[in-house]
Specification:
With about 375 residues, the protein is α+β, with helices and mostly antiparallel strands. Helices cover about 25% and strands about 30% of the residues. Helix 1 runs antiparallel to helix 3 (about 40-60). It is globular, with a radius of gyration of 28 Å.
């Protein structure tokens, strides 16, 4: 169909250029000559129509929004605006939490529901679209905040795909205080043990890296980040500056299939930077225990954080980069799907009120 469509366009453009009307005379001839001078060439017509077809035919904004499983605009609070799964509180996870290293038991963690509002604040006028999450310091005790993965990510044990999209504004060499910083890390046990992430390392200047590490089976040793075969993409000396917003998208396809057909990719500012492919990649999470960690040791602004249930295409990533506010309608959708408790008076309440009024005002003989 696409080939037929472009053939029709080609014929139409050729007709416009090659048409040779009878030579007019006088003022009419002058007007026609000026008209011909301003007529677009066949190639320009064809190019314009083709570009319009690409935009309208391949990028559907509604389809991008429909693929969202989790969305945090950070316009009003750290609480996410939209989640595709169950959003009611859980015993172990209750919306946004803080995790700290246990002080005495190695490998164990302490979970708290409170967020340090001195470290994590909402900057309502500083976002790429509306407000933004502003992080001004690093939590002590290796603390980190996260959203529960269950219901918010499209994980399936027998195979799944997805994407992460977020905007960052930081100085990668001057603002960050620790050796490593992960703007996002999705994992149960750790970055290199069933983890999807991108980070800034301890190089000078810092590198930006994307990793997609499989879960390490018990009793085995995982691959190290310095191994040339590590499932990573590296951008040397990224050099981000504090005044600039940058859009980062991670896409992943065919994870946890057991086949060497997985593919993850990182896009920065709408452009494909690199891929991890042609290998089996398995997260192997217990979804009840996995978390979507954000702003680990990060200082700066984060905005428009979203997860999707599919690997976004290059065209969709580019469109999302050019339209930072594209997901904002999801805030209205979430409000419609989760309306506040009704304050309307029921018929039973009206009847009880009338009876009470009658008892208080009626005379002994029953009249008013």
């Amino acid at each position: 169909m696409a080939r037929i469509f472009f053939m029709i366009l080609f014929v139409a453009a050729t007709t416009l250029v090659r048409a040779e009307p009878q030579a007019p005379t006088g003022d009419v001839a002058s007007r026609v000559e000026n008209k011909l001078k301003t007529t677009r060439t066949r190639d320009s017509i064809f190019s314009e129509l083709r570009n319009k077809a690409v935009v309208s035919g391949r990028v559907d904004e509604n389809n991008i929004r429909k693929a969202v499983t989790f969305y945090a605009s950070f316009d009003e609070s750290l609480k996410a605006d939209y989640g595709a799964g169950e959003r009611a509180p859980h015993t172990r996870f209750n919306h946004l939490h803080t995790r700290f290293n246990h002080l005495t038991e190695k490998g164990q963690f302490i979970f708290e529901k409170d967020i340090n509002e001195k470290v994590f604040t909402i900057a309502k006028s500083k976002g790429i679209a509306g407000g933004a999450l502003e992080v001004v310091d690093v939590l002590d005790k290796n603390g980190r905040i996260f959203y529960p993965a269950k219901g918010n990510i499209a994980f399936k044990k027998d195979g799944w795909s997805g994407s992460v999209s977020m905007w960052c504004k930081t100085d990668s060499d001057k603002l960050l205080k620790t050796k490593f910083c992960d703007p996002v890390q999705i994992t149960q046990k750790g970055a290199n043990n069933g983890g999807l992430w991108f980070d800034f390392n301890d190089a000078k200047p810092r590198d930006l890296r994307h990793g997609a590490f499989s879960m390490i089976p018990d009793g085995q040793k995982g691959i190290g980040e310095d191994d040339p075969k590590a499932p990573m993409v590296r951008v040397s000396g990224i050099g981000w500056k504090a005044n600039d917003w940058h859009h980062v998208v991670l896409t992943f396809k065919n994870l946890d299939t057991g086949k060497p057909d997985a593919l993850t990719a990182i896009y920065i500012d709408g452009k494909l930077i690199g891929e991890v492919k042609d290998r089996a990649i398995a997260m192997g999470w217990d979804i009840e225990k996995a978390g979507i960690y954000i702003a680990i040791n990060y200082i700066g602004l984060l905005d428009e954080f979203a997860l999707f249930d599919k690997a976004l295409t290059g065209e969709e990533v580019s469109h999302l980069h050019k339209n930072p506010e594209l997901l904002s309608p999801l805030k209205k959708k979430a409000a419609l799907e989760n309306p506040p408790a009704s304050t309307a008076i029921t018929s039973e309440e009206v009847l009880r009120g009338l009876k009470d009024f009658y008892r208080k005002t009626a005379r002994q003989d029953g009249s008013f």
